[in-house]
């Protein structure tokens, strides 16, 4: 078949919907073990040689964030009706590689307490698996993705294996904030991240473009297309620009029979398979299930519990920035090199978990400074000196508890380019999140003030930014009346439907979720292989 042939495969053991890190890892893991795998991706392929142009697009004032990856318009329409506006098209990407095409790349593990929130604190619910159950998959995921890190975090969960690569050295501004933390009795350590500190897995070491978020032109930062390419080399077939419209099940409602997808010309096809994996993230996964309603499942496929779309979580993001009286000489590194997890594990139920990272923030770009101040020649130079290089900042990711009222539904009043109702994202913050945020902001302010900075911005506790980590909308659990998938990531209702996504998280902790997504994807692939 040609690269642009989008007709169904005649035979497929496994059909994977979504070509992000979860879909890519599942596809590769199964293809290497002899399964015939087909991957269906809604967005386009993004060749490596196009990424430099996308970086340049990001740097030009005429383009906004979503222009870099072509997000927006009728295809990506959505509504946001929650307490806080949810910027969905800034948090996701439709394309081969998925949202990891623009992620920052941090790969911490969840802590044991994150799996035991009800047992420890009487909050939310426990996962049906423990940290120890996921521990070997965490190690395998770090190897698969290529993680740089160091054994310098006294608060990290237990591990035996060293990181595949050494950690990145701390930046100049880290030394300023690190000294302040030392005075305050706060331990600082490195950040594990899926970014090559040396050549790894055929990809170069980081070359310092500093535009990691939203685009890494060199390929040194891992993204899901790495495993898609590996899966294809093992015989998997990957179709791009084929959004799945719905899943169809057998007459008994016990097994999925086909994924119905549309090609760019609007033609619909049915891809049949023995097993199906949904790997579309925490927004599009529940949307697809809701779009797949039938007489047997009038409230949406795999939704006998009513939990599909519910319990939407994200990490609450808070920034505190300031300026020093003397220039720091700091340049845009593009990613954090130091954080503190000192405030993550806690004895009392509330405030909850958070961590604080150092931003390596150098201030607004020189172009923005020049354009905003106006003038010519020496006036522009003076404006740049005033606004660039003396800034310093921190970020905090804050834990949010699952709430059934925080959810993804279908907005029947608005449709996408195929006439389907768009997702309505109703995101709430909650008292636990606000209380934890207030503590996190106090810690951030203390650090900056101890460093001698004058604070010029702090995110309000009740108006958080999105951490771009949607989770929880098809959650995992032992009770089919309260959850969507079991500990094997298989839906309770359909025997051949697996979900590999942050949507299965019962709780979200405050750690970046991608490594956990990768670990769960490896686990899901093992179970699918066992069922062959």
From TrEMBL:
Residues 456-481 are annotated as: Disordered. Its cofactor is FAD. It comes from the Archaea. Transmembrane segments: none annotated. Residues 402-520 form the Glucose-methanol-choline oxidoreductase C-terminal domain. One of its GO terms (molecular function) is oxidoreductase activity. InterPro entries: FAD/NAD-bd_sf, GMC_OxRdtase_N, GMC_OxRtase_C, MIP_CS, P2Ox-like. PROSITE patterns: MIP. Residues 94-316 form the Glucose-methanol-choline oxidoreductase N-terminal domain. It holds the Pfam family GMC_oxred_N. Keywords: FAD, Flavoprotein, Oxidoreductase. Belongs to the GMC oxidoreductase family. This is GMC family oxidoreductase. It comes from Halosimplex aquaticum.
